[in-house]
Amino acid sequence: KFGASETKLGxxxxxxxxxxxxxxxxxxxxxxxxxxKEGGSRCCVRIVNRRDVYLTEFANENDYLRLxxxxxxxxxxxxxxxxxxxxxxxxxxxxxxxxxxxxQGRNGSVFCYGATxxxxxYTMLGTLESPGVMVLAIxxxxxxxxxxxxxxxxxxxxxxxxxxxxxxxxxxSPGRPLVLREDKQGMVAAGxxxxxxxxxxxxxxxxxxGNQNRTTEPTRCNETSSRSHAILQVVVEYQVRDASMNVVNxxxxxSLIDLAGSERALATDQRTVRSIEGANINRSLLALSSCINAxxxxxxxxxxxxxxxxxxxxxxxxxxxxxxxxANISPCNLSFGETQNTLHWADRAKEIRTKASEVxxxxxxxxxxxxxxxxxxxxxxxxx
Length: 384
Ligand code: ADP
Ligand code: MG
Hints:
Elements: E1 10-11, E2 24-29, H1 34-38, E3 45-48, E4 52-55, H2 61-66, E5 74-76, E6 79-81, H3 87-94, H4 96-102, E7 107-113, H5 120-124, H6 133-147, E8 155-164, E9 167-170, E10 180-183, E11 186-189, E12 195-197, H7 200-212, E13 229-241, E14 247-258, H8 272-296, H9 308-318, E15 322-329, H10 336-349, E16 361-365, H11 370-383
Parallel strand pairs: 1-13, 2-6, 2-15, 7-14, 7-15
Antiparallel strand pairs: 3-4, 4-5, 8-9, 8-12, 8-13, 10-11, 13-14, 14-16
Helix pairs in contact: 6-7, 8-9
The structure holds adenosine-5'-diphosphate (ADP) and magnesium ion.
Family: Belongs to the TRAFAC class myosin-kinesin ATPase superfamily. Kinesin family. KIN-8 subfamily.
GO molecular function: ATP binding; hydrolase activity; microtubule binding; microtubule motor activity
Binding site for ATP: 114-121
């Protein structure tokens, strides 16, 4: 696929230090909506010093007495984004470093967690005018590839899938549910479309289209509440010569995940289909919280198998990966309980230690003789 003779290969860069072996946790506060303002909602969250989140008010006067002891509770994260933060800043602070690591052949994942309406999809996908992390990451990836001398040698593949009701579906070519299986690269969905991308322009369109295929159902809480988890996978593959002038194949994988609403299903509509659906959402997110707990407590057995979502996130949580969590919260006092719940899990996620990602590489060609090796080295020295 990558004819070494046709393409000029770069030489292995000095390895960047990797992002550490802890999940990085960020919080993003969304602005109060017009409707909320008009409805007289108060703001119950304050962000101080770009790190600390203060919960300042309660849902209503009755809650006030029950929750009094929590008044003024504060949390500290790797960074907290106030409601004025632009998409580019969220991207640069949370994800840019992972993109650099993916270009060195490491794995990275970013997931957005929070209640419906808290700003997960806005953060991940964004709009055509203000593209989110998914699009900015791909844009940055292409810019960085172009800046390297070995341009033309990199292949970028995208796949976009959803987990809905414990079923995995391809968002780029909707059809029958996909089956998960484990291979040497981790958990994969058999038959998933791998779309070869050449530029950012086509990608935004593709993702918007994919997002239209996401399962959304009206619920009492929110008319277009997203009930599914969406996962964008970006795989970058390229070849370089290592210090011994062998040709090595490097593969870096970036997973960008927009989780379904974390609010309790019981708080919405519990009848018939919706209740089954709610139970499954609970199953996935419950499984996620059990995994987080088990990882924090350093347990030997992590219950990834309990849901499709945790099977797919296995690499990201406990595997060979640099992981970022963005917790999305609403400023509205009516969402106090959900905000508190989100901050609780985000705070807990800070404790997870992951195995920091190693470079995924495989030697695919060695120089034919020692003379060839020496020649190649000499050429390289001349070039520099
Ligand atoms: P979620 O995916 O968590 O359910 P959305 O991303 O759909 O929530 O956000 C709910 C609404 O709030 C949308 O109309 C979205 O455009 C808006 N919104 C969310 N975050 C922001 C933000 N940071 N700036 C401006 N509007 C936002
Ligand atoms: Mg959403």
